[in-house]
Amino acid sequence: MSDAMLSALDGAQAQGLIGIREMGLQGMITLRADQAKAAKAVEKVTGVAMPARRMISAGQGNQIAWMSPDEVMILCDHAKADGLVADLGGIGGAASSCGQCL
Questions:
Q1: Residue 42 belongs to domain spanning
Q2: pTM for the complete prediction?
Q3: Which of 25, 46, 90, 98 has the greatest number of CB atoms lying within 10 Å of its CB?
């Protein structure tokens, strides 16, 4: 990921019927792999079970979103994304993090 730590909204907030606030930088990892074969390794690395089709699993500060039969998106702390990609590198799939996730 990029070393640039920029936020598009710089802490913006809005109040009304609902409150909206910027979350800050978000780590996003795309993982393409056979989900059945990768499930145990992904859960070991992220602490979150693979989601069912068209679902999102969450826990331990991470979320995993089903994207397609061979792809999930892992949402994590921005500072931990590169480490998770490295840890996921040995599961036989392709993992990559976005360069500058906002």
A1: 23-97
A2: 0.76
A3: 46
